[in-house]
Amino acid sequence: MRLRCARCNTERLDTHLNSFFLCEECTAGLTNEALNGTQPIFRDFVVLSYCGLCNEHKELHLTQWFLCPYCDRLVNSYRLGRVSQAFAQAEWDRLVRPVTSRIALEVKDIVSLSPYQRPRKKRSLATELDFLGKEGDQAVFWVELKTGQRSIDEMVTFQLDCSDCDDILNVVALTGLPAYVFHVHLGREYHPPSFRILTHGIWWTDIFAMAEAFQETERRRRNGGKLAAHFSKECFQTLGSLGPALSNDHHVLLRERLQEHGMPRMYRINE
Ligand SMILES: [Zn+2]
Ligand SMILES: [Zn+2]
User: Fold this and answer.
1) Average pLDDT over residues 213-231
2) Ligand number with the minimum distance to the CA of 26
3) Region 4-20 average pLDDT
4) DSSP secondary structure string, the chain?
5) Ligand 2 center to residue 27 CA distance, Å?
6) How far is the CA of 4 from the centre of ligand 1 (A)?
7) Quick one: which ligand is closest to 25's CA?
8) Which ligand is nearest to the CA of 30?
9) What percentage of the chain has pLDDT greater than the value 70?
10) Residues of CATH 3.40.1350.10 domain(s) within the chain?
């Protein structure tokens, strides 16, 4: 039986009844901003746990919509994106800003609820990354935020989709500014029937260090078999060391390197 997805509005065989535990505000937000005003097909049973969107401990209802797997994944990604973005900013304020008060971190790519848009034929490359580092009015570097269920220490290698590398390099080429990559380690703490997303740690590296740490490319077994680049995890450091590095003009040196030597090659496709 083909069922209509509440978000992308297509009728698909793999559309399922998806369950979320949501607070009142988040139910309204999802309905109006992400799901074309489609009211939940079911909303009942009050529980006290962590909301599937705002991640706050609140009174929740079991809330259901018919969604295709793609839209289900996307709706679930909002919480991860919001939590990691807020954590990165809080950790910057706690660890980096006291050391380099002249550089501020500005959110560029805000995780916001949005309706489905039909994909363009060819995916266009990013023109902005998640954060922009600014000294006064002047933009000095970009930051791209990545999240995962492992700490850097637990990884064998750090993996990044080649399409993500291409996005980062496109923004660097367009703006002439270097880019840093942050990795946020997220975890889950179950409070049945829902769970809380926990933030365990944050690390940083830059595109030149990544290019030097590149090992190989490989097709992912999951995630649509995308081509991913593997990097030695040693190119990452805990966020605490970024403040002193920026105070020593780390970002200025990266920019000079960019001007003198051009774009780093973050990955090479295996022969
Ligand atoms: Zn859909
Ligand atoms: Zn909520």
Assistant:
1) 88
2) 2
3) 96
4) --EE-TTT--EETT-EEEEEEE-HHHHHHIIIIISTT---SEEEEEEEEE-TTT--EEEEEEEEEEE-HHHHHHHHHHHHHHHHHHHHHHHIIIIITTT-TTEEEEE-S--------PPPSSPPPPS--SEEEEETTEEEEEEEEEEESS-TTT-SEEEEEHHHHHHHHHHHHHH---EEEEEEEEEEEEETTEEEEEEEEEEEEEHHHHHHHEEEEEE-SSGGG-EEEEEEGGG-EEGGGHHHHHHTTHHHHHHHHHHHH----------
5) 7
6) 8
7) 2
8) 2
9) 98
10) 80-261
Is the predicted pLDDT of residue 72 greater than 70, yes or no? yes
Tokens of 86: 């807020």
Q: Give distance in angstroms: CA of 2 to centre of ligand 2.
A: 30
CA nearest to 143, candidates 127, 131, 125, 160? 131
Q: Which ligand minimizes its atom distance to the CA of 12?
A: 1
Say how many Å lie between the CA of residue 224 and the centre of ligand 1: 16
pLDDT, tens digit (0-9, with 9 covering 90-100), for 118-162: 776 677 899 999 999 999 999 999 999 999 999 999 999 999 999
Please report which confidence band the pLDDT of residue 110 belongs to, taking 50, 70 and 90 as the band edges: confident
CATH code for the part of the protein at 80-261: 3.40.1350.10
Bridge partners, residue 141, by sequence: 133
CA of 22 to the centre of ligand 1 (A): 19
What's CA 75's distance to the chain center, in Å?
A: 13
Q: Which ligand is nearest to the CA of 18?
A: 1
pLDDT per position as a tens digit, 197-208: 999 999 999 999
